[in-house]
Predict the 3D structure of the following.
Amino acid sequence: MSSSVIEHRPLARDTGTSPDLASPRMRRQEAVSSRSAGTGSSALLQVDGLSLDYAGHERIVRATHRVSFEVQSGDRFVLLGPSGCGKSSLLKAIGGFVKPSEGEIRLDGVRVKEPGPDRMAVFQEFDQLPPWKTVLENVMFPLLAARRLPRVEARERALDTLARVGLADFAKSYPHTLSGGMKQRVAIARALAMQPKVLLMDEPFAALDALTRRSMQEELLALWDDIGFTLLFVTHSIDEALVVGTRILLLSPHPGRVRAELNADHFDLRSQGSEAFQAQARRIHGLLFPEARV
Amino acid sequence: MNTSVRPEFEYALEELNVAPAAQRLPVLQRLWQHSAVRKAVLVALLAAAWELAARLADNDLLLPTFTQTARAFWVDLLNGELPGKAAVSLALLLQGYVLGVVLAFGLTALAVSSRIGRDLLATLTSMFNPLPAIALLPLALLWFGLGRGSLVFVLVHSVLWPLTLATYAGFQGVPETLRMAGRNYGLRGLRYIALILVPSALPAILSGLRIGWAFAWRTLIAAELFFGASSGKGGLGWYIFQNRNELYTDKVFAGLISVVLIGLLVEAMVFDTLERFTVPRWGVQR
């Protein structure tokens, strides 16, 4: 039973010398090597020549055109692009909500066909939490709905995860009594409690105010250091992409095509003002808006 | 123009110790806060106006006074005639209501799971919702004869369409994100409807149940007036009809008051309670 509960380790983000800091990466390496030994492919998530179309009444609109990329286990993979680049559609397709018209998505080598709890999603909208359930019930809901755990253990794991996002005191509150940032934390706790193969986040902090957004980014990175999940994160903010991501996929708009794939694992919130950070941000800006370059 | 640089300030914040002094409002003002009190006052005023009008008209056959009606109501309440009739009506109503609710959920479940089901629901509701249940009674009498069957048939008709419409509208109002969250959990089919759609649409469903109940109650009383007692046992409608024939106008009014009172009681005791325990707690509705 204890194995079902996420193991406890202190938050070790600020102590740069702590050995804990390296452990997610190490774990990632282990996961990668074991996987590659098994299936011959090293990637956890493979998106292969994916085209997504939306059928309107009059015509078909192409959202993304033959997009390919691979996400490694333990990545914080960011899909970045201006509106209309199909990044949200891409995430929905990986979530199984949208059927691709071309290409395929494989998770652990298995083709994605429909939504499932191995790809838990955190959306931007606050109404993703059922309002008729308390915070605790909300976190337990997917565990019970997917028949992952019996009630008692689901409750235990939900309480544990809520404590990790700092909401233990609000377990009995209803979502409408919480602030926007707290609602997003519940949504994140709900997703993490399921221990998904990949956590999908669709502009989760876009509806928050700037100060809350910053602290949420910080908390997300701390959780990643702590638990070590694989993250697929959609954003339209270059800064957020650099802070949150270890690797960034740049998409060009109308329709979405891959423009570049960049590394960002050496940036965090503290390096935001640094020269290297600014240079990378300028480079991304130039790639996304070539005509606006001065 | 002032070019001097204004000095900057930083203040150390002191502990706030302004405890809000709670003050109780005067008794009368506090009473007036309750909507039940305000409504009771309104009802009393209406009763007084009725009494006045009846005394001015001075014709017991056309308009008995409030006190006469109250006396007739009290007498028939104590001798068991009104409770008996009401029980007959309510028992019948419950049968038709439950059957109508079950059918409505079946139809909406069909509508959310397939496009043809959706078309079926849209077509049927637009055809039958405007059709007064009572207009079907002659046909029902032909099919089911003089008795319970006919009444249950028209009751089902009066509940089914408004409830179906309300439930389906409620289902359609479920936010897209919440739907995706539900499917994300791997919920499908009936579990998806029961665990995501129904709770989320509960405010709409409750108001549909309310409307359905009011329609059914109305239809039943009218139907009882129409063909009277079945198998020797009449309901409230029959009570009203019979007393009108014998020109006991005060009893006619007592019957009408019973209809109103039962309607109010069910609203307040069943539906308001149901709503109080669910919907506002979630903050979905004000």
